[in-house]
Amino acid sequence: MKIFENIINHKINTITAEELLKYAHQFNIAVSRHQARKIAEYLKGKNVNIFDDAERARLVKQIAKSAGPETAREVNKLFLQFTKQ
User: Fold this and answer.
1) pTM for the full model?
2) Over the stretch 31-76, which tens digit does the pLDDT of each residue have?
3) pLDDT at 56
4) Residue extents of the structural domains in the chain
5) Distance in angstroms (rounded) separating the CA atoms of residues 49 and 79
6) For residue 9, what are the CA distances in angstroms to 5, 32, 70?
7) Contact of 66 with 42, CB cutoff 8 Å
8) Which residues of 3-13 are buried (b: 16+ CB within 10 A; e: fewer)?
């Protein structure tokens, strides 16, 4: 499953605000356009592994600082959807 994880992580690390909004809508997760833009800017160029619980937790904390705690919780729900197997 390592290739699956690599593909998902690559997508997270290169996601655009529009893509983030599309996925959020698909999974019924509330994220505004402004929040999606902030999150996408933060993720761009980062090399995060959302399959690593500790790394994902650090990422969610950073998102909370820039986009707010409620948005971070919603984005974490989205990340968890991506990591379900």
Assistant:
1) 0.80
2) 899 989 988 988 888 888 999 999 999 999 998 988 889 889 988 9
3) 94
4) 2-83
5) 10
6) 6, 22, 23
7) yes
8) eebeebbeebe
